[in-house]
Amino acid sequence: MNHTDPPTPDVLATAGPNGTFPAPEGDPGAAPATPGPRRKKLSLWDRGKFLLLLLGLFAFVVAAQVSGNPLMSWGDALSIEARSSWWLLALIGVEVVRQVHMYLGERSSPYYVFWTDRVFGRAETRMHRYNDWNRYRLSRAAKWIVTLVVALFVYARLEHVSLFDAVVKVPNAIWSAIPLLFQIVLLLLIVVGQFAAIFWFMSKGGVEVYYPDDVKTRFADVWGQDHVVSRVKENVFYLEHPEEIESRGGYVPGGILLWGPPGTGKTLLAEAVAGETGKPYVFIDPGAFQAMFMGVGILKVKSLFRKLRKLSLRYGGVIAFFDEADSLGNRGQLASGFNRPGGRAAHAATRLGAHGWRAPSYADGLEDFSGCNGVHYLSSRAQAELYEHRASAAGRPGFGADGSVQAGGSVHRAVMPMGGMMGGDMGTLQSLLAEMSGLKKPRGFLNRVVRRALGMKPKPPPKYRILIMMATNMPNSLDEALLRPGRIDRQYEVGYPSKEGRVKTYNGYLAKVKHELTEEQIDRLAIMSPQATGATIKDTVNEALTQAIKDGREIITWSDVLRARVIKEHGLPDDHEHIERERHSVALHEACHAVVAYRLRRNMAIDIATIERRGGTGGFVASVQLEDSMFSWKSEVEVGVMVSLASLVGERMFFDGDNTMGVGGDLGSATMLVAQSITRWGMGDTIANWTMMVSEGMGVGSVDADRPFGKQVEAKLQELYRRTEEVLAANRREVLALTHALETHKTITGEDVESIMEGTVGPTVDGRRYHEPEFVDIAEEYHTSALQAHRGGSDDLRDLPELDRVAAKAPAQSPQPTSSTQAAAEPE
Q1: Which end of the chain, N or C, is less packed with Cβ atoms under 10 Å?
Q2: pLDDT number for residue 723
């Protein structure tokens, strides 16, 4: 019986005649009397459902009398059943009295209190001695008994037998109806089975199970990611020894997200976890949840987790790896990533170069510069800043004719859209989230359905040891709910390996082939590859082996490795030859870049200098970082600008104030670096972050009222231009020497540049010859002929002077490792 807690006897004693509680005597200002407890009002259905059941049964027995005898009238049937089924009428009367009783209890507090406290109080007290589960079981059993009695009563009336005879005839009737039941079930199976079979077949695929003996990868096979491996080992320990943390009130972390650039070993690390633990490894293909029909993705998710639970119980644990997890999508707006813990937005697409994913290229929209590349000689961080600014060009301010800033929108960091609104289809991602959170539900049909139907408590669910690992190179596209603790408990960045990691990776892959590289050469190779991943290192070694086999050798040499680096990092040159006059200007252009970079840079080294054309690039000078630094200084930015300006300064210096259009890319890089250093990095006359001021709608017109922004940029460029001019003027011989070497060899290494600048012997070029007194006269004479050809004074250049090699006369010395070879420089 539904009621509130009855009042205590002393409270009842003070209740008024209407069940109200009067205010205390002598307190006229007290609150007015409040009504006493009453029965909670029931809904119309809860109040009348039993009365409707009894009336329905009585109407049924009357109708059964009429249907069995065509001469029977409804009045006669009603009088007959009133005598024979009087107990139904009695139950109806009792139910009517109960309804009146509840009606009075809802409106009269004394009436309700009397019956609940004096009459039904003891019975209620006894019932409350049972716990909730036992009361639920008794209620369930009573409902089953009432249902069976009603069914038997209806069957007895249909068969015109007594209730006791119906109990005897029911088994025989069920047995006789079995063929018909089988036909109905078979028909349902045929109809439903067609759809079930279609969806079952479509729900398969995209999931590969590797059993313990199938996975041979171990943590020792993951090179260059020691810091990540050490953290993942913690998860493996708790997966194999869950009692260590569960006995202390904790729980085993069940999810790991591995994020970082492609090729850094995320998938290999997941395989190593499976190999070390000896657990089954379930690989989920990125397109596993993509389906033609809506709902198939949900079935795939449920089928996957059923399989994971079975494998977990059978083997004591299982590893589930979702590769390219960004394919799961996002349910709502794209996650910004800048507010997430761990700084994962540092690897947003607009920061590719800054944090070492890869340097921006023309395909990224930097600009289609003709002539010099314009960005190769810049640091990766400077390249990334340029890319970021140009990616957000649609919202940046422009410069007016007077050098002032024209507001064109707010400058902000561009976030490239990633992911979609959903995963495979509507509900797939939601189903995945629910399954990852619902690993504690009871298992088995008998346990969940049959035991509950029999009023038995289901067995507690087992502890499923499922470690879910996900990998992505676009973490910003993942749904926030997917990454919350409880689903993904750990998030590890698998970034580019450090120098030590690269050395270890090179040693690992080189150990699988025959080679003659020394430890010093491998160490130099690691320095030359600051953004190399495990995949790129493996590919470079394989390409080096290909080059060796092409030359008829089985042993990889240093030149093979360097040739492979040039092919993989810069591509093969076009089958194009510069005309002689243009060849000289391009070589001088790149020589100026190389001289300024060599003289001024301390944190970077020249990797390669070339005048061989690749696409729209006539030539370039590429540099590599010597240290894995995180920040750039003002002096480093200024040096980068001077390296950019070197082409313009050199062309004007050597060609009587004239210059090619090929300096456009260099000037764009220099201008953008200076502009950003003034507006964002406090490297100009002002300290305020002008970019932030523009985005907030403040100070749109200028950075300084006396010195507009454009004038500050121009003044800084002019200052750096003069400093660059001084460097090139002091190194005129070196510029002519590098120009001659580039025209002769087309491609030279960074060590060759050093040998020319210092007068030593390089791997390809003998730099001592360029320091002999007669070289300056020869070089100046040749340049004069090139200048006359440029002015139109002659049709052809003089033949390029050949310098006699003196390397054979030089004392024997082991050449330093280089980043390219003559074989790599020559077009194939």
Answers
A1: C
A2: 95
Residue 199 lies in a domain: no
Secondary structure letter of residue 223 according to DSSP: -
Whole-angstrom Cα distance, residue 780 to residue 792? 18
Class of residue 99 by CB neighbours under 10 A (exposed 0-12, middle 13-18, buried 19+): middle
CA nearest to 96, candidates 51, 45, 57: 51
Residue 674: domain span: 572-825
Domain containing residue 614: CATH number: 1.20.58.760
Tally of structural domains, the chain: 4
Q: Which residues of the chain have pLDDT under 50?
A: 1-21, 23-24, 26, 31, 333-371, 393-424, 700, 702-703, 705, 805-828
Burial 352-374 (b: 16+ CB within 10 A, else e): bbbbbbbbbbbebebeebebbbb
- CA 246, CA 704: separation in Å to the nearest integer? 63
pLDDT, position 726:
95
The predicted-structure confidence for 449-489, as pLDDT tens digits, reads as follows: 777 777 677 777 778 888 899 999 888 888 888 888 888 88
178-216 in b/e form (b: 16+ CB < 10 A) is: eeeeeeeeeeeeeeeeeeeeeeeebbeebbeebeeeebe
Phi, psi of 363 (to 5 degrees): -65, -25
* Cα 758 from Cα 761, distance rounded (Å): 9
192 in any annotated domain: no
Q: What tokens were used for 747?
A: 């491609």
Full-prediction pTM beyond 0.70? Answer: no
Domain end, chosen from 148, 173, 198, is at 173
State how far the Cα of 291 lies from the Cα of 647, in Å rounded to an integer: 55
Q: Rounded to a whole number, what is the distance in angstroms from the first to the last CA of the chain?
A: 95
Is residue 535 domain-shared with residue 579, that is, in the same domain? Answer: no
User: Please, which residues bridge with residue 321 across strands?
Assistant: 283, 469
309 and 238, same structural domain? Answer: yes
Domain membership of residue 341 (yes or no) is no
Residue 317: exposed, middle, or buried by beta-carbon count in 10 A (0-12, 13-18, 19+)?
Answer: buried
Query: For residue 728, how many other CB atoms are within 10 A of its CB?
Result: 23
pLDDT score of 549: 94
* pLDDT score recorded for residue 695: 67
Q: Strand pairing of 371-372 and 617-625?
A: parallel
DSSP tag of 470: E
Contacts of 726 (CB under 8 A, 6+ apart): none
Q: What is the pLDDT of residue 697?
A: 61
> Residue 583 and residue 619: Cα distance in Å, rounded?
10
**Residue in the structure block whose two tokens are 């999810």:** 255
Per-residue pLDDT of 99-144, as tens digits, reads 888 888 888 888 878 887 777 766 666 666 677 777 777 887 888 8
